[in-house]
Design a protein that fits this description.
globular, 42% helix, alpha/beta, 10 helices, 8-stranded mixed sheet, 14% strand
């Protein structure tokens, strides 16, 4: 079986380097025509040349930027089939030191950028009437939280919620919506002490990283995007799917895992009385587990 995206048109945001470039390259290799977006003009042009696509320089977040991307796809290739919302930035800082601007910049790029690009894409896809694919890029930080990443984790958690919600809203139009949860060697992960030496060495990653941590190169994460863009994934929607190194995984949706009942409802004292022996036994861990060699 070979994935074939010939005749399909894709937009990949934040595709000048790293994961976005890997996604754009894989989609192009499978036959898709690609609009390469990045806020860095030089990176966008170089990436577009590499994948045989066209560059559209813009900082995602505004409706105008999203509509500009969709218009470019239509003007260059006549249609749109796939929107990959990958663009992102980091402004890491602990809660009590994070500024309003640092919070807003990250949420604007990740969450609002996903919203505006998704909205613009769906408007055209519904008009075309032939279905389509929205592939949103999340993060383990959005699934579990991560120290120092209030803004990033909140935005990525919001993106997972968008995938679930949009999958319901877009189902009748045969538009699937999924979130990819990648773990790969990029500028965003190069600062993690356990990963940094392996990224900097240029050597193949050891098995404990590729299998144990599900950590690999950007190219390792690209196959999932091509799969989700294909007809083989026509029935896959509303999912958060992890990819990295040698590991492919599916993340659970938030769900109640235990419940207790009391006639007349719960007072504070009643909750305190049963907590340790009751629901307190099911409290969940937080944070991304540290690497174990």
């Amino acid at each position: 079986m070979s994935i074939d995206l010939t005749g399909k048109v894709a937009i990949v945001t934040g595709a000048g380097r790293g994961l976005g470039l890997a996604y754009a390259s894989e989609l192009a290799a499978k036959g898709a025509s690609v609009v390469v977006n990045d806020a860095d003009g030089d990176a966008a042009v170089a990436a577009a040349k590499l994948v045989g696509g066209v560059a559209e320089v813009a900082s995602v977040g505004t409706a105008e930027a999203a509509e500009k991307l969709v218009y470019r796809a239509v003007s260059e290739f006549g249609r749109l089939d796939i929107m990959v919302t990958n663009a992102g930035i980091l402004r890491d800082r602990v809660l009590w030191k994070m500024t309003d601007d640092e919070f807003d910049e990250v949420v604007t790029t990740h969450l609002r950028g996903t919203f505006t690009c998704g909205r613009a894409a769906v408007a055209l896809l519904r008009e075309q009437g032939e279905g389509g694919r929205l592939i949103l890029v999340g993060s383990p930080a959005g699934q579990r939280g991560n120290f120092g990443q209030t803004n990033y984790a909140a935005a990525k958690a919001g993106i997972a919620a968008l995938a679930r919600t949009w999958s319901m809203e877009c189902a009748r139009a045969a538009i699937t919506v999924n979130a990819v949860i990648p773990v790969a060697a990029t500028a965003m992960t190069a600062t993690i002490p356990a990963f940094a030496p392996h990224i900097e060495s240029g050597e193949p990653f050891p098995e404990w990283l590729r299998k144990g941590e599900g950590f690999g190169t950007p190219a390792d994460a690209a196959g999932l995007v091509a799969f989700l863009a294909s007809e083989d994934a026509a029935a896959v929607t509303g999912q958060c799917i992890g990819i990295g190194g040698d590991r492919l995984s599916i993340w659970s949706h938030p769900a109640e895992i235990a419940a207790a009942y009391r006639d007349g409802g719960w007072t504070a004292d009643a909750i305190a009385g049963i907590w340790s022996a009751g629901l307190g036994r099911f409290v969940q861990s937080v944070g991304i587990p540290g690497p174990v060699q």
